[in-house]
Amino acid sequence: MFKKLSFAVIVIVFAANNAVAQKLRIDVQGVAQPTPVAIVPFGWEGNSPAMPLDIAEVIKGDLRRSGRFSPIPENDMLQKPTDGADVDFSDWSILGVEAVVVGKVTQVGVNAYSLRFQLFDPFRQRQLVGYQIPASRGTMRGAAHRAADMIYEKLTGIKGVFGTKVAYVTAEQQAGRERLYSLIVSDQDGENEFKIMESKDPIMSPAWSPDSRQLAYVSFEGSRSSIFIQNLRSGNRFQVSNKPGINGAPAFSPNGKKLVITLGGVEGNPDIYVLDITSRQVKRLTTHRAIDTEGTWSPDGDHIYFTSDRSGGPQIYRISANGGTPERVTFEGSYNARPRLSPDGTRLAMVHNDRGNYRIAVMNIERKDLLVVSAGRQDESPSFAPNSDSLIYATRQSGDGVLETVSADGLIRQKMASGQGDVREPVWSPFPKFTK
Amino acid sequence: MSYYKIFAIAVLGALLAGCPSTPVPDPDPSDTTYDGGDSASTDGMDGFDGQDGTVIDDPFEQLGTVIYFDFDSSEVRAADQDLVAAHAIQLNDESFASVRLEGHADERGSREYNIGLGERRAQAVRQMLMIQGVKASQIQTVSFGEERPDAMGSSESDYARNRRVEIRYTD
């Protein structure tokens, strides 16, 4: 089969340090009354004139982009302390800010720093959280996001996702009819874009492993579909499925040992299979002659949800992960596809045809009520943040593919635009697992 | 008088030539008059003079290689069946020849589901070839879903151009 790769197949695979110049821009169209907060410029004690990274700017950006907070401008501040002991609460309560963050970065070694911050409630006049995070120049941005996460969780009760990543596919028009497809990973704020794979043939359906170290994806290199798993740090990848016909829609099991995939075979009947990654053995779960695809695991590992048009049009079904009889899950509307469960297991996101428009809808699994959360005509590929509180999805703006995030209740929506061609298929990473 | 004759011959020549046309898919799925084949070298000449005789096909003319489909359909249109038959003949004549049938869908809806729709279309052509004797080993299918559109826009006519199967001969 692969001797046919002798002509015109170029696939470039990258390891973790391959940064890309352009980045996602984020336009906030936030909530009606975001809470005013003050993030005071951080103090700096070190060998160079300025600190390696403007920590306050990163924290401000994270809080502002959540749509829930409105950081006040520096010019409005009556004092700019860098130590909690110097905070004068009346200077802040008079401005109406509900939270004040002060902090400092101190250099403790050649490439060793200490990021220290404190969060205060000026009305109750007490500290809500204070923390010190060690960092190097390379981990400074991550440390700032961790600080923002802690501040966010203290103020909202919701776990922050500022330290998470997103993966997505871009397609850039080249000369003639050629397109260049890229698989990209970036911070959730658009920084640190790096390209992990590039190909002149389509790339589809990226999926994060539960430990955030790998991405599975579909590649059409060699003019056929096959499924790869790639290690993000090393760039090494291995092919896990290249059977005749369709190989598609990979998604990791909660323990990371299996993939649910779609196989079509020579006869072209797409069905749901479970692939054991180590042994490459597959177990078939569906046998219907309908299109059965887009499998995804429930967070408890018990069920696989998938799209099937066995009732005439696409609807969402679920089946026991060990096999059995599929049961239908969606009954509202003529088109429901591409299911994704929130990590807390309470909600199901999907692509739903709403009066002729393809939009993202979220269904509460227990109450079975459906909420349309996006407003475009060609919205697709919903993916929950690991805190289950918002989703990222692909939409179109003036004909270009762009990404948007929306809170799970549909109230806060934000555009993310990338300069590099058509952006699609975003997937939000799990919470990073800190390993030493 | 001679100018008239030249004019008449020129008009006759123009009428006999038959204009080659690129097949334009019908954006209205309910319209069944679309002629998908540019393989018919007999356009414009059949029965023109009402006399006996049979046409000889241009041996160098290439067969059309794209078949278009109606919305939400994987049925090969009646007008395309001759084209498929012509490919079947070609494949039966040359048992070492093989084709890759590339199925496509328009961009509406979910991507992996659209892979399934493109595959259905490729399979419809495959079944039609096999019924006419082509061996399974000569046929490979691949679905690109909405990933390789021919037309980049979002109008109905763009969608119609993208709902297709492309027939590629492989070595």
**Topology, number of strands of chain B:** 4
CATH superfamily of chain B: OmpA-like domain
Find the structural class of chain A using helix and strand composition.
Answer: mainly beta
What does the overall shape of chain A look like? globular
Shape of chain B from CA axes? globular
Kindly report how far apart the N and C termini of chain A lie.
42 Å
Task: Give the number of helices of chain A.
Answer: 3
Average pLDDT across residues of chain A? 92
How does CATH name the architecture of the largest domain in chain A? 6 Propeller
What's the helical proportion of residues of chain A? under 10%
| Average pLDDT rating of chain B | 79
Chain pair forming the biggest interface: A-B, 38 and 29 residues
Radius of gyration of chain A: 23 Å
CA-based gyration radius of chain B: 19 Å
Strand content of chain A: 35-45%
CATH homolog superfamily of the largest domain in chain A: TolB, C-terminal domain
Please estimate the helix content of chain B: 25-40%
How many strands, what sense, and barrel or not for the largest sheet of chain B?
4 strands, mixed
Q: Strands of the biggest beta sheet of chain B: in what spatial order?
A: 1-4-2-3
Description:
The complex is a heterodimer of chains A (436) and B (171). Chain A has 436 residues and is mainly beta. Chain A folds into two domains: 286 residues, TolB, C-terminal domain (Neuraminidase), CATH 2.120.10; 126 residues, Rossmann fold, CATH 3.40.50. Chain A is built from three helices and 32 strands. In chain A, the strands form seven sheets. In chain A, strands 3, 4, 5, 6, 7 and 8 form a six-stranded mixed β-sheet that branches. A five-stranded antiparallel β-sheet of chain A has the order 1-11-10-9-32, with no helix packed on it. In chain A, strand 9 and strand 10 form a beta hairpin. Chain A is globular. In chain A, 47% of the residues are buried. In chain B, helix 2 packs across helix 3. About 19% of the residues of chain B have low confidence. Chain B has a single domain, classed as 60s Ribosomal Protein L30, Chain: A, CATH 3.30.1330.60. Chain B is 33% helix and 14% strand. By secondary structure, chain B is of the alpha+beta class. Classes of the chains: A mainly beta (436), B alpha+beta (171). The interface between A and B is medium-sized, with 38 and 29 residues.
